[in-house]
């Protein structure tokens, strides 16, 4: 036997030995899982079946690295949706651990954070198995995929077209280009929002300033009008000044009298409705009218007038003010 044949035979024997060891390792893992399952009831075994199969496949994956990332994630998606991990007891390094939540499963069984696994699952569901795997193979990580999920459907369609062409370089370049474009657009939107916010704040500040100026001007105008009125009155003779003051008062009195008379119609409607339906409103109505009377009496008290009594002097038509007859056309001293 020549030297080359001898070497070839040794390599074949070595490969056979590796295959034998691999098969033995798989059998040992399966035996461990079987022993673990036998410790539980049939119901628990059934509940744990899917997850235990997953654990076995994951250990075999670690040894031989033959299961693709997509298949790995599809397995995880099924386990998460079925919730078969709840109540699971698994043996890790000889220690039995209870699994109650998805986060527990991710940490204990998968050795990863729940956030990391959920991000992979979200990316897989967003892009589909083929596009997800294509992007993963060209070095596009979970974080960049999360950014790509925010792109418009038209941009995602471009990535899909590049994948169908089976051009990995084109996929990588296109993704980088779209991510950069998205970043620029996001930055521009932020700048536009900031500018609009500033313009709005400036406009509100300008409006507030204008309102303040108008209020100041209105106040000054009112004060000037009062000053002018006072100066004008100071220059008038007493009789004319009294006439002017009474005219101003008459204007307010007329408005008040008009408002009181306008109460007649709505009050009549209240009375008519109450009479028709047998509702007692006497107390309420007297209260309203008493308020008007009290307002009138308040004015009399403020002016120092007694209750109104007709004058007994046929030549005078006025009221009694502190016991003296006051003509409506005479100045009160």
The N- to C-terminal Cα distance equals: 150 Å
Report the structural category. mainly alpha
Global Rg = 48 Å
Low-confidence stretches: 3-19, 63-68, 316-333
Beta-strand segment tally = 4
Largest β sheet strand count, sense and barrel closure: 2 strands, antiparallel
Shape designation: elongated
The helix fraction, in percent, is over 70%
Helix-strand pattern: HHHEEHHHHHHHHEE
β-sheet strand percentage: 5-15%
Mean pLDDT, nearest integer? 74
In what order do the strands lie side by side in the largest sheet? 1-2
Determine the number of helices (DSSP H or I, runs of at least 4 residues).
11
Keywords: Coiled coil
Overview features:
76% helix, disordered N terminus, mainly alpha, disordered C terminus, two-stranded antiparallel ribbon, 333 residues, two-stranded antiparallel sheet, coiled coil, 11 helices
Question: What does this protein look like?
Answer:
The structure is a single chain. With 333 residues, the chain is mainly alpha-helical. Among the domains are: 21-112, no CATH class; 236-327, no CATH class. Helix content is 76%, strand content 5%. The radius of gyration is 48 Å and the shape is elongated. The termini are far apart.
């Amino acid at each position: 036997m020549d030297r080359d044949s001898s070497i070839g035979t040794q390599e074949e024997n070595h490969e056979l030995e590796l295959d034998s060891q691999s098969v033995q390792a798989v059998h040992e893992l399966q035996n461990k899982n079987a022993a673990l399952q036998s410790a539980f009831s049939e119901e628990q075994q059934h509940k744990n079946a899917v997850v235990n199969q997953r654990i076995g496949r994951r250990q075999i994956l670690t040894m031989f690295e033959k299961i693709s990332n997509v298949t790995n994630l599809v397995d995880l998606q099924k386990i998460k949706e079925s919730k078969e991990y709840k109540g699971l007891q698994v043996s890790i390094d000889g220690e039995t651990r209870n699994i109650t939540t998805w986060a527990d499963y991710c940490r204990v069984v998968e050795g990863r954070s729940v956030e990391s696994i959920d991000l992979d699952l979200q990316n897989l569901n967003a892009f589909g198995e083929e596009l997800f795997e294509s992007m993963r193979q060209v070095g596009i990580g979970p974080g960049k995929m999360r950014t790509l999920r925010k792109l418009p459907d038209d941009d995602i369609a471009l990535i899909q077209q590049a994948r169908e062409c089976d051009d990995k370089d084109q996929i990588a370049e296109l993704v980088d280009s779209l991510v950069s474009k998205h970043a620029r657009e996001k930055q521009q939107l932020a700048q536009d929002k900031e500018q609009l916010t500033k313009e709005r704040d400036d406009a509100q500040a300008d409006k507030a300033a204008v309102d303040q100026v108008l209020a100041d001007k209105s106040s000054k105008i009112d004060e000037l009008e009062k000053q002018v009125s006072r100066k004008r009155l100071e220059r008038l003779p007493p009789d004319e000044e009294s006439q002017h003051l009474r005219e101003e008062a008459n204007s307010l009195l007329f408005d008040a009298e008009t408002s009181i008379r306008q109460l007649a119609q709505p009050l009549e409607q209240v009375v008519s409705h109450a009479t028709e339906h047998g509702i007692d409103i006497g107390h309420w109505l007297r209260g309203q009218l008493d308020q008007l009377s009290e307002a009138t009496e308040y004015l009399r008290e403020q002016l120092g007038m007694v209750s109104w009594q007709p004058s007994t002097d046929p030549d005078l038509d006025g009221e009694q003010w502190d016991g003296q007859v006051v003509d409506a056309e005479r100045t009160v001293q």
